[in-house]
Amino acid sequence: MKRIAIIGGGVSGLSAAFALEKRRQAGASLEYALFESSPRLGGVLVTEWVDGCLLEAGPDSFLTEKPWASDLSREVGLGDQLIGSNDADRKTYILVKGRLVVMPDGLMFMVPTKIAPTALSPLFSARTKMRMAREWFHPPRKADADETVASFVERHYGSEMVDRLADPLLSGVYGGEASQLSVRAVLPRFAEMEATHGSLGRAILAARNKMAHAPKGPAKPLFTSLKDGMQQLVDAVVSRLPASALHSSTPVQRVQPQNGGWVISAGYASDQFDAVILAIPAQAAAELLGTASAGLASELRGIEYTSSVTVNLGYDRSVRACLSGFGFLVPRSEGRHMLAATFVHNKFPHRAPEDRALLRCFIGGARNEQVLQSTDDEIVRIVQEELGQIIKLKADPLFTRVYRWNGAMAQYGVGHLERLQRIESLLQNLPNLALAGNGYRGIGVPDCVRSGNEAANSVLLSVGLAEARPTGLAS
Ligand SMILES: Cc1cc2nc3c(=O)[nH]c(=O)nc-3n(C[C@H](O)[C@H](O)[C@H](O)COP(=O)(O)OP(=O)(O)OC[C@H]3O[C@@H](n4cnc5c(N)ncnc54)[C@H](O)[C@@H]3O)c2cc1C
Q: What is the pLDDT of residues 38-61, one digit of tens each?
């Protein structure tokens, strides 16, 4: 019987546990134990119901084009609970000089793919529009080295594009800054497009032309979520795992290699396992591995994280009239605390009753981490003040909830992919150890699910159980 430990009970660790459970049910001779420091499982996936509204404290959805979270949902019996974003209402605004300007139709991240809406949009100055036209003639360029997203975007479209689109979009996803994040790690497809086509606009057009001949299915929504919120995924996965394998309120303090396996120390107890999956933030993994491998710990410590706060505010229905679209993004140059706001009742069905409006605001990130030092009341006051200025929302909320996420968002800095290569080569010296989580190859929920699956497969292979094929669990 092989014994595997999983450390971390967020979506990455739970996905790894579910993958192991499938192997166990398929007959593999294995047992596993998942250790989670907090009393609840799910990590940053937290859903709360208040006054008939569904509040997401962490992620509210995931990108539909990345299949792994939807696949997991189906495997745990939630196929009929998957919902798509209301893309008919999908309009996002950018705050420009204190006014909200709608993002023009046809932008793919920051690449314009439709001429008329971009040419007519007040989002960009005439100078940036000229740059967009010139970008069409950008020569192919195979970069020798990584660079920041800001310098990449600036080379193609100029600094206004960085300020008004690239930076706010990345703040929304990573809580990070375009001037720090690696283009190769964060926008790998764009880096490839530059190498092959030069112009990003031409590259996207070429890809579209190719796709035009492919058979078309029904249009998919941009975002997918679950009817009862992201917590539904956590609860469904947990319900398919044996309770005896799940150890919440059990922080692991140390993992040490011993006799070809690993000793896990949590509190006063230690236990021996054949393999370990560390599904925790890279910084936390560095703490646990300090004595096992100083080199690996140092590389993991180099992956930085930022903190953020989400604030949910519920209002009565009269507020709905002043909010159209999915929400707005706030460029750094606007000098606000807020990074973004989502009009939740517009973005997804089943989030707020007809007589309520629900907003979710983000603050913090690399731009403003000190806001985490403020009290909840101060944070709500800041958010209300800025909503008053930006969308003229003067009504008092019926309820507010503030959620703090300390060091939860990994930042893929310049050189991140090279760091991952060094980490992978250091892992060769530490058999039966795998890493999962948002610190490595994707920060979103689907990538975290994939990372958990891959970590499970990797340790199964290393302990000689990989040949037992998964059959899926009955739902
Ligand atoms: C506010 C916010 C909004 C987001 N929005 C989206 C979104 O809309 N869509 C999307 O796709 N992604 C989103 N993300 C990103 C995504 O949710 C996360 O990257 C992902 O859920 C991380 O999962 P994880 O399991 O790797 O880490 P976590 O959820 O951080 O889980 C790690 C777990 O490890 C535990 N742990 C740490 N150290 C130890 C230890 N020593 N012993 C035992 N346990 C330990 C922690 O308590 C935690 O529960 C968002 C993230 C945040 C914070």
A: 999 999 999 999 999 999 999 999
